[in-house]
Every structure is written in structure tokens, then in C-alpha cells.
Design goal:
This protein is α/β, with parallel strands linked by helices and 292 residues long. The protein folds into 2 domains: 201 residues, Aspartate Aminotransferase, domain 2 (3-Layer(aba) Sandwich), CATH 3.40.640; 86 residues, Aspartate Aminotransferase, domain 1, CATH 3.90.1150. It contains 8 helices and 13 strands. A hairpin with a 5-residue loop joins β5 and β6. The longest helix has 20 residues. It starts with a strand and ends with a helix.
């Protein structure tokens, strides 16, 4: 990556990526090449445009009209992706692990073929790492486990560790696309949030990342044999536990002192990357009680 634009959230980082992709294509090809392909069950934010980019009908309510120009195709279906990437498309945007969409990990061969398709068509390849970035999956960014080189990478969440910061990173291909006056942010790059992000980045080292992978395998191993668990998906410490009535199980966990989320039909686990062994075992004890 060559340049970074700082904002305040993941939705803003994705909004910046979308604007960059459209301007890149406008500068090079003119009008009518503005569509962006995303995946069914994706989630890219809560602004009107990033909701439009989100491939879940449950989010396409109340706020009509939504932003035009987004096409949603099924994950891991390369034929559908190839068919969708026509002469009107300027970008493909993927989460390598779909968070809100059910902690679904994209197939590596599919992602590689998607990147190659984008190169062939001169379509920008955007990877949304708002949830997966900053060590969450066991590497600094999840795309590093896929052997790809995105044109744009977005991130937020873990970057600020509670402070509001988002980042949109550009490769050499599009580092000069945004010019003065075409984008901005009132508080983007403010010194307090950036100081927090610097502290976070300094703390992410090989020891922490290997620990994330090891703890993820530990959790996966314990939960996969629980009687109510159908499957465990995810990467590193971004895990989804498939079970009947996940919402009720979430409430049971909360009553016992463990905070978890849901995603579709799964419990979603996102423990701290530096969680201690004692806390990890206490969390697993509660999960085992709830999940049989």
C-alpha cells in the first residue's frame, strides 16, 4: 500500500473506497462504468451507500431510495461473479470472512480467481478488512493468508481499540485517484485517535499473531465436540458457532457473564486478541455449559 486516507469508522473507510473506485473508472473510462459487485450476505456499513453495498435484504428497508449501482452475487460462485463483472463495473468488494453474514470464510481459489478477473478487466479489487484486520484472523490482515494484492484495503474496529478511526489504503494503481477537494473528513487523522492506533499497531507482533491462531484452534477444538454445536467456522479469533436457536444461547451466555454476538444461525465469538489463559478457560467453561 502506498497511501492512506484516515476517517472515523469502517463505514467511512468503505465509503472512501467506493468513491475512489468510481473516480478511478471515471477518470480512465468516463461515465457509465460505476457499478460495484459485492457478495450476498456481505456487510459493509450503515451509511446509505454502504448499506446499498451490503448484500443482505434485511438491511434494505426503511431508508429508500438506496444508492444505485451495486450488484450482489453468491459467495464462492465464480461463474456468477464473472457474469456480473461486465463493462459497467468499476470494482469488486469482498470480505474474506463475512462477519454479519455468518462468519463465512471465502474459498482461497475463488478469491485468487476474483483478483485475476479484476486485473484482466481493469476493475479495482477492494478487500473490506474492517472486522478482519489488525490481527483478528491471525495475520495483520486476512488477505495476507490468501496470497493476493488488493488495490484498496479498508479497516477500522481493532485499529483504534475503542477510539474512532478508519483507514482506506491504496496501492500504487490508485494512490493518486483522490485529488484535493474530491474527498475529506472533519476529524479524520486526528492526533488522539492516531496515537491510539499507533499504540495498537506497535502491539501487534509475531508473538501476538501466533497466539491468536493458537487460541482460535483451542476454542475450535473444545466447542466442536459440544452436543449442541453443528459446526465451527472462521479464522483466528473470529469464530462462528452453528447451533439451533443461537439468539437464546446468546442470552444464556450473557446471564452467566459471557458476552457473545450472533450472526445468522451462529454464535459469533470475538474475544480480545491478548486474552489471558484464565479468562479464556472461564469463557470456554461457560460456553461448554450452554452448548452441552
Amino acid at each position: 500500500m502506498k497511501k492512506v486516507f484516515f476517517s472515523n469508522s469502517g463505514a467511512e473507510a468503505n465509503e472512501c473506497a467506493i468513491k475512489t473506485a468510481r473516480k478511478y473508472s471515471f477518470d480512465k473510462y468516463g461515465e457509465n462504468r460505476f457499478k460495484i459487485v459485492t457478495l450476498v450476505n456481505s456487510f459493509h456499513g450503515r451509511t446509505l451507500t454502504t448499506l446499498s453495498a451490503t448484500g443482505q435484504e434485511s438491511f434494505h428497508q426503511y431508508f429508500m431510495p438506496f444508492t444505485d449501482g451495486f450488484v450482489h452475487v453468491p459467495a464462492d460462485d465464480f461463474a456468477a461473479l464473472e457474469s456480473a463483472v461486465d463493462d459497467g463495473v468499476c470494482a469488486v468488494m469482498l470480505e474474506l470472512v463475512q462477519g454479519e453474514g455468518g462468519v463465512y470464510v471465502l474459498d482461497k481459489e475463488y478469491v485468487k480467481k476474483a483478483e485475476e478477473l479484476c486485473r484482466k478487466k481493469d476493475v479495482l479489487f477492494i478487500v473490506d478488512e474492517v472486522q478482519t484486520g489488525n490481527g483478528r484472523t491471525g495475520s495483520l490482515y486476512a488477505y495476507m493468508q490468501y496470497g493476493i494484492s488488493p488495490d484498496i484495503v479498508t479497516t477500522a474496529k481493532g485499529l483504534g481499540n475503542g477510539l474512532p478511526i478508519g483507514a482506506t489504503m491504496f496501492s500504487a494503481k490508485c494512490e493518486k485517484t483522490l485529488t484535493p477537494g474530491t474527498h475529506g473528513s472533519t476529524f479524520g487523522g486526528n492526533p488522539v485517535a492516531c496515537a491510539g492506533a499507533i499504540a495498537v499497531i506497535k502491539a501487534i507482533n509475531d508473538k501476538l499473531l501466533s497466539g491468536v491462531a493458537e487460541k482460535g484452534e483451542r476454542i475450535r477444538g473444545v466447542l466442536s465436540v459440544c452436543s449442541k454445536v453443528k459446526s465451527v467456522s472462521g479464522l483466528g479469533l473470529m469464530l462462528g458457532v452453528e447451533a439451533d436457536d443461537a439468539a437464546a444461547l446468546k442470552e444464556q451466555c450473557l446471564q452467566k457473564g459471557l458476552v457473545v454476538l450472533t450472526a445468522k444461525d451462529k454464535l459469533r465469538l470475538l474475544p480480545p486478541l491478548n486474552i489471558g489463559d484464565d479468562e479464556l478457560e472461564e469463557g470456554l467453561r461457560i460456553l461448554k455449559e450452554v452448548l452441552g
